[in-house]
Amino acid sequence: MASVHESLYFNPMLTNGVVHANVFGVRDWVTPHKMALLVLLSELGRAGAQLGLLERRRLNRLLLPLLQGPDMALSRLRKAIEECCPHLAGSVHIRLKLMAEGELKDMEQFFDDLSDSFSGTEPEVHKTSVVGLFLRHMILAYNKLSFSQVYKLYTALQQYFQKDEKKDGADESEMELTNPEELDGKMEKEELDGPLREEEIACSGPLSQKQAEYFLSQQASLLKNDETKALTPAFLQKELNNLLKFNPDFAEAHYLSYLNSLRVQDVFSSTHSLLHYFDRLILTGAESKSNGDEGYGRSLRYAALNLAALHCRFGHYQQAELALQEAIRIAQESNDHVCLQHCLSWLYILEQKIFDSCVLLEHSVNKSLHFGLPYLASLGIQSLVQQRAFAGKAANKLMDALKDSDLLHWKHSLSELIDISIAQKTAIWRLYGRSTMALQQAQTLLSMNSLEAVNVGVQQNNTESFAVVLCHLAELHAEQGYFAAASEILKHLKERFPPNSQHAQLWMLFDQKIQFERAMNDGRYHVADSLVAGITALNSIEGVYRKAIVLKAQNQMSEAHKLLQKLLIHCQKIKNTEMVISVLLSIAELYWRSSCHTIALPVLLQALALAREYSLQYLASETVLNLAFSQLILGIPEQALNILHMAIEPVLAHGAVLDKGCAMFLVAKCQVASAASYTPQKKIEALESAILNLNEAKAYFAKVDCKEQLRDVLYFQARLFHTLGKTQERNKCAMLFRQLHQELPAHGVPLINAFK
Q: Where would one find coiled-coil regions in this protein (predicted)?
């Protein structure tokens, strides 16, 4: 089940997606790129009514990122303008050419003419508009330049234009040497490229305040909402180092460096950047200006809180506790209730690693509601629901609690928490074995639109919640035998969450588990054994359990039993009830294979008691099937049939295809065993009914390509057809059995001693 506390990290840099940075002495300066933008604005004003409504709308949408973003090559700028209005792109190019190939006085005249945009009763540009402020900043920055600086700017403009001319000449030469088909393919590839490549976003020099703010806010927003569209960790760190080289005291750049280090799980760099962020924040006095005398103390307590969260994330619980105690002490001295509530939430997380306690969490929820902190209150409710789910509370009570949490989400438009709540419901239904309900919740989340306003082209749903839901969806499809669909979902997950992203471990684990199950179904135990190492690296408990399953399948009973006993003790210690029941079922199967049928019964009864105590309906049904099998091999098939009717309905409704096949195969075995005491006519009817159930089981096994179970079904069917005197059907089953028997190794285990 997904953790719901990832969002508790306090992020002082982000306020509605905007980075607040005021440490730059120079707000803006004139560059050749900005002069090209000034030419674009001038030509846009001249065009006036000649431009169509659609073209003007496209240009207006293009202007804002151009004005805020970093400088780009002239060819890239021309291409962007051509996509909106080809005629205007030509005018801008001609105007820049005249200025670059003319004299210095042409540039002087251009800046003098810019002031005319504000003159008249109906000026072309309003002074307080976005474009007006940009023009005024550029005019002011140009007027402050000395003569030598003006000359350097003019030289830079000439180089900027000449570089574009050389690139165009090289492209034309290449076009002449390239055949049309290759050229079309190349152009098509360029059109499919993203809007900005990394080398074009690169900060070639010191950025102005606005450019730095835009760059940091854009990357921080992408890291939160759509990590795949953010710069790669290495390239982003390079740009941040370049930014800090020109201004080492830029606190927000240190914080973005901290977030970037978290992406690659670099504990040293993330700690280093986090401490630098709060050091610079205190030294520059940014907090004191915005929060008065409290600014210094506020930075200290949130520094300690973030440090505690960082240590907790990397599993350093002792260091996290010390940092948290420091944050609590400073927050209590300052009477900061908001910080104290964050500390209380993290205190619950740390204590949860030692013992289960709902007292802190309930207190945190009540206090958060009292101080008007719906975000923390909702996270507390969802954590409480998660804990109660593991404690075996009824599903209807948990859903009622989540409904109350959803009311808070919709009331305060907490889009991220709405996603977490639905992912939580999906995981709870999976835990309780209701795959149909889990599928419904997963589809609900995938079809939802985000409530948060994000940039065009940015997907809001690249969060942990969507990763969890898509992983569950892939597993559900694999369980039903739709392996192609599961592969498509996993392929989509790999594209959306690349291996270096923070949520990639989720799909990696599910991918390995699905491959393991397919290899086991196909009888390729050596392949399954090779996958165990990958599963263990991602989840040690799952890896050990699957290693024991492989050993059991290879008839290494003593080694499997030792491993399962160690795993059972560990899972009981950490209170992983779901795994405890699975281990008990595997141990019972080991006893069957060793002909210790009576010893398996107490183990199964213990598993059934746990499953019912913790409301794990599907595991309870599976345990009942195992009990029915025990009764069958102990010689009481009538009783086995009676209890099968209690358990088979949930399995057929919510179970995996393999479990459905095993259940129908078991029903057929019980019917055949019970028919021994029937009258001849009734016996024939029972055997024909068993054959129908075997056909259904065979269809299920064929769907998941489970050849070993399919071989057993065919053998059983051939024996039944022989008893009924149906020679043709018997021969057909015998032929299919022989084909599979030659393909698969024979383990020498009697057919009746294996349930699954």
A: none
